[in-house]
Every structure is written in structure tokens, then in C-alpha cells.
Amino acid sequence: MRRASGLLLLLLAACGAPPPTKVAELPGWREDAVQEALPALLAGCATIAKMPDDRALGGEGAGSRAGDWRAPCAEAAALPPGDTAAIRTFFETRFAPEVAGEGLLTGYDEPSLAGSLTPGPGYPYPLRGRPEDLVEVDIGTFLPDLKGKRLAGRVERGRLVPYADRAAIEAGAIDDRSPVILWVADEAEKFFLQIQGSGRVELPDGGVVRVGYDAQNGRRYVPIGRLLIERGEMKREDVSRDSIVAWLKANPAKAQALMNENPSYVFFRRREGLSPDLGPLGSMGVPLTPGRSLAVDRAHWPMGMPFWVEGKDPVTGAPFRRLVVAQDTGGAIRGEARGDLFWGWGPDAHQRAGLAKDQARFIALRPVARGS
Question: Are residues 123 and 266 in the same domain?
């Protein structure tokens, strides 16, 4: 109760205060180690540097085109390493806050699961690669008003039709068109790997294969946790990744049917050559930084945009305010005030990701000309 009251006071205070007009005025700005977000920003800058100036990064306004980042990225690259004062001043003078609003902040990690290069006893579940007949369409190239919206399907008699849903895929509908890249031991863990979008598959010989998102079947994402609540199988306050996995394992006769009610299906590819010390690649194509990389809705916000997030720590319940960078997307991440924070890998990250599900305030930091 004390945690909830503290968060309520935090949000009420945020609502009552006028919107900040300067980065330096953000509540808690001086307390955050903002220099820890600079590597994430620079990684995004390196990707943006390869793009033409008019390349759309998502959303609208300042920062939505690659050219908007030339000057701030050049300045960021020139910052003296370890000069925390200079880094803080850079963010204060090169960006302007824009309140996105209050919404849900969740967390995710890079999960580990047992798997094998070949099928066999203990490894019956296929991890599938992109099907050869899957077609992805950027609707914005045809209808500018729908920029950022995408479709996926397959061509049948010259027309784009919906792709097979989860139930059909699990029943073998695309076995001849979708390569199996690995075999895994646990179906519930595989299901959540598809939600997370990346992971580490631990092989019997001790080796590790990194896998990441490659494509999605175009079907809408349906959260099965919500279905469990609606059917009285779980209380809302008890729903988490771990509790859902436990339910699936405890109810094998019902598990597949429940998972099939989420028609969305994610296809993977191996991430060769990715150092074990680096995070998985996000939608922006750069390794995610633990605690500093955020998944957002690209229909509203550009990849590479810094955000200031105000909420509560998922473990302690203490006020949580930190600088993060939008570097990923997700099927469940929809809306202006919605985010999913990457916590890293390992037991601690897994705990934080599993507990993170609270209201937070999102403030975008848009790039501005120096002195404006």
C-alpha cells in the first residue's frame, strides 16, 4: 500500500506541475547518471549516419528524419569520454522536452532457454525462421497518412491475403515453407521468446546461440494474461510473465488452445557474431543497452529519440526517473504513452522485467538547434 501511495503522489505531483520547458527542469534530472545513456544514443547515431537525410525514423516532428540528427550526433561523438558534466550539458542544450503523457511502462529481458541444433528427445519444439512466401508491406509508401503502418501476408492469385495464424502454423500449415533454425525444450518458454523478440538458446554442449526477431505473420497480438483474468484463472495483480508460464506448464491440456488465441507469430534468425557481453539487436539494428534502451510505438515516435521516464522501480517501488533511448519496438507496444524498458539478461534482469508493469510518465526529448 505504501508503494502505491508513493506512486500516486508522484503522478499527482507530475499532473499538477506545469510541463517542463527545459531538460534541466525535469524532476530528478540531476540525480540520474545520464552519461550511462550516451552509449545507447551514440549506437543509434552510428546507424542513422548511414541513412539519407530524408529517411523516416518514425513519428512526426523534430527527430523524425535522419537529417535532424546530423548536428546533435556529431556533437555527441565529440564529447570527452567520462566527462559527466559535458554530457549532462549536451542533453540540456541539444534537446527540448515534450510530454507524451502517462501510460503503461513494462519491462523485458533477453531470456535464456534450452535448445538443440537438431530435434530429439527433450527438444521437440521448432523455432522457425522467416517463411519464403511471407510478404511485408509498408503501407505508408502507398498512403502517406498511414506512415509507420505495416502489413504482412502472402500473395494468392495476385492478391495479398492474411498469413497463417498461430493455430494454423502450430498445426503444420507452413512446415514446407518455414525453415527450422533451432529446436527448443519448452513450449511456454518458446511462446514468451516470441513476445520478447530475442534470446539466448543454450545448447547441450554448453554453446549458446543468439536469436532475434526476423519477421511476424501480420496478425494482431492478443495478450493471454488478459484472457486468464477475464476467465477467472488469475487475479489481475498476480499476472506476470512467470505466473503465466507457470499456468501454462500446470495446465498442459489447455495451454496450446490458450496460446493459439494469440494469433500473432514471430519468426527468428540467428544472430551470428554478436558478443555475449552485448545486448540483443533491437528494431533499430543496434545492441540494446540494459536499463537504457526503450521499446516504443514507431507510429508515434522515431527510433533514436531520447526519453525521460518517470515511474517506480519494479523491485523496490521507489521513485524511478531516468534517461533512456528509443531503440526497439514490440507487438504489444501501441500508443504515444507506452513503453517497454530493456533490463538486460540474467536472473536480476529477469526479475525486474517480470515485475515491471506500472503507470509512468513519458517525456520525449526532441533535438533542437543549439541556443534555441
Answer: yes
Q: Residue 320: beta bridge partners?
A: 311
DSSP secondary structure, 118-152, as one string:
S-BTTB-EEEE---TT-EEEEGGGT-GGGTT-EEE
What b/e string do you get for 207-230 counting C-beta neighbours within 10 Å, with b at 16 or more? eebbbbbbbbbbbebeebbeebbe
**Contacts with 269 (C-beta within 8 Å, 6 or more apart), sequence order:** 129, 130, 181, 211, 212, 214
Please name the residue that has the C-alpha cell 551514440: 42
pLDDT of residue 279: 93
* Same domain, yes or no: 215 and 294: no
- Residues 102, 117 within the same domain: no
For residues 210 and 212, give the distance between their C-alpha atoms in angstroms, rounded to a whole number.
Answer: 7
What average pLDDT does the structure give for the chain?
Answer: 92
| Confidence label for 332 from pLDDT (cuts 50, 70 and 90) | confident
Query: Measured between alpha carbons, how far is 69 from 89 in angstroms, rounded to an integer?
Result: 17
Contact 310, 360 (CB under 8 A): yes
